[in-house]
Amino acid sequence: MSLKSSLLAVFTLGKGVVRGLPDADDDRHPIDLFGTWFSEAQKSGLLLPEAATLATCTNHAVPSARLVLLKDFDHNGFVFYTNYGSRKAAELEQNPRAALVFYWPVLQRQVRIEGGVTRVPQAQSEIYFHSRPRGSQIGAWASRQSDRLKDRRQLETRYRELEAKYQGDEIPLPNFWGGYRVDPHCIEFWQGRTNRLHDRLRFDLDGTTWASNRLYP
Ligand SMILES: Cc1cc2nc3c(=O)[nH]c(=O)nc-3n(C[C@H](O)[C@H](O)[C@H](O)COP(=O)(O)O)c2cc1C
After folding, report:
1. Per-residue pLDDT tens digits for 150-166
2. 42 — phi, psi (to 5°)?
3. Where are the alpha helices (H) located in the chain, listed in sequence order?
4. Residue 63 CA to ligand 1 centre (angstroms)
5. Residue 211 burial (C-beta neighbours within 10 Å; 0-12, 13-18, 19+)
6. Fewer Cβ close by (within 10 Å): the C or N end of the chain?
7. Complete domains list, the chain, with CATH
8. How far is the CA of 127 from the centre of ligand 1 (A)?
9. Residues 79, 91 contacting (CB under 8 angstroms)
10. 196 a catalytic residue
11. 65 alpha carbon to ligand 1 midpoint, in Å?
12. What is the CB < 6 Å shell around ligand 1?
């Protein structure tokens, strides 16, 4: 952690603990509230505020969870990118529902998101893929994410072969790689407070409008 991010973290620590949920009026759209909290997390000095735990579930109700990075969000949902051959992708194809959990410790805040999942249009994945560093683009081609790998050398050899293959050329979007969008029907904001009297505000989509309720901590 740099000195700047350490100072930011100290400055931010506990602000929400004192103020509670000041931004969360009942008529506030939960995506806009998420935007406010997310930009506060980005300014807080936290490493990777865009990291979220993604939970998926097979159609036999076996859950699994891992971290992903949020790359985009708006009123249509929350977007992350991955390998469409991975375990998470297999589970999402079987059961297109997911939960995302953000935790921003220095702000003592958690946000839980639940919703249906769809692949983002290929054109959108294409734009994001080409915005990534060249090494990450080659890395996406090199990885058969979640498959068994005999040894690390095999992965590195494959990376070098692909690097040579595409030298001087644009790297195409792999047909096994792209984004997913979580279209939320429930978003819960959690603010840590003293004596464990934490604030919880849950928004549920009711048709086209969001209904909000406070929950016991
Ligand atoms: C901080 C962090 C961010 C990550 N971001 C991503 C991501 O955006 N996309 C991704 O496919 N994997 C990401 N990973 C790796 C996943 O956690 C996971 O190991 C990988 O996607 C395979 O998961 P699966 O076998 O359940 O599909 C990230 C890991 C960490 C620790």
Report:
1. 999 999 999 999 999 99
2. -65, -30
3. 3-12, 15-19, 30-43, 87-94, 122-131, 134-142, 152-165
4. 16
5. exposed
6. N
7. 3-214 (2.30.110.10)
8. 20
9. no
10. yes
11. 9
12. 48, 51, 64, 66-69, 80-83, 86-88, 145-146
The token duo for 156 is: 């590195």
**Protein residue closest via CA to atom 11 of ligand 1:** 82
Give the C-alpha separation, 202 to 75, whole Å: 17
What was the pLDDT predicted at 21? Answer: 74
Q: Which atom in ligand 1 lies closest to the alpha carbon of residue 80? A: 8
* Selected catalytic residue, list 148, 152, 153, 196: 196
- What is d(CA 113, CA 85) in angstroms, rounded to the nearest whole number? 24
Q: 87-120 burial, b for 16+ CB within 10 Å, e for fewer?
A: bbbebbeebbebbbbbbbebbbbbbbbbbebebb
